[in-house]
Amino acid sequence: MPAPVFLHGRTVRLEPLAEHHVEGLAVAASDDRGDHAFIPVPSGLEAAERYVAEALAAQAAGRALPFATVGAADGLVVGATRFCELDYWQGPVIWPPAPRGPLGDPLTATPDAAEIGGTWLSARAQGTGINTEAKLLMLRHAFETWGVRRVSIRADARNTRSRAAIERLGAVLDGVHRAHTRGLDGMVRGTAFYSILDDEWPQVRTRLEQRVAASPAADGGRPLVSA
């Protein structure tokens, strides 16, 4: 399991998710829940406690690396995100293909592929550019520190807002798995799968860095203009 890390940007920092983030997550999640129909977001303090406990259990099991999303200017928690579906390609080929753990010491392992998921933001943080810089920090860490070959991102096929945000990152649509699973509303849903490959990363990075640099809030704390 890759070791937890702090990822610092100009408008946002990603902190390893911990119990002390519970109250901040509960407050952030209560801020206009209208955009959370397709995303599992805790509602209330007890739900936030369970959310953090389950995320830390997934981390302990080697399945995820969760973060609290924190505004750099005021230090307030504005959401959460994580690396998940960590896959290691060392050793013999297995069939059928499935995510598997590392060979050797898991504390020093780095994955060959990963997914960014479980991302949600409070209403006040949406449209501020925080999501763009957070994704830049995570993608940079995945491709340049871990050296992964692929980063995947998925969304409920009905969630047009999330899909548009993923496409603005420069991710490529791999396809939609029809009738893939049950959504949060109980309906059977399709899932849109996107990915960025290592040879696509330099161009994606340039676009994201330009978007972050163009944000007025990165200079002087003025409001950001892009999401």
Comma- or semicolon-separated keywords:
227 residues; alpha+beta; eight-stranded mixed β-sheet; 5 helices; globular; disordered C terminus; GNAT_dom; Acyl_CoA_acyltransferase
What does this structure look like?
Helices cover 28% and strands 28% of the residues. It is built from five helices and eight strands, in the order ββααβββαβαββα. It has an eight-stranded mixed beta sheet, with helices on both faces. A hairpin with a 5-residue loop joins β3 (64-71) and β4. α1 (22-29) packs across α2 and α3 (130-146) packs antiparallel against α5.
| Beta-strand content bin | 25-35%
Count every helix, treating DSSP H or I runs of 4 or more residues as helices. Answer: 5
From the helix content, strand content and strand pairing, which structural class follows?
A: alpha+beta
Task: Enumerate the strands of the largest sheet in spatial order, edge to edge or round the barrel.
Answer: 1-2-3-4-5-6-8-7
Mean pLDDT: 89
Number of DSSP-assigned strands: 8
Q: What is the terminal separation in angstroms?
A: 31 Å
Strand count, sense and closure of the main sheet?
Answer: 8 strands, mixed
Shape descriptor reads: globular
Helix content: 25-40%
Enumerate the spans where pLDDT stays under 50 for 5 or more consecutive residues: 219-227
Radius of gyration: 17 Å
Secondary-structure element series: EEHHEEEHEHEEH
Organism: Streptomyces silvisoli
InterPro entries: Acyl_CoA_acyltransferase, GNAT_dom
Protein name: GNAT family N-acetyltransferase
Domain N-acetyltransferase: 12-171
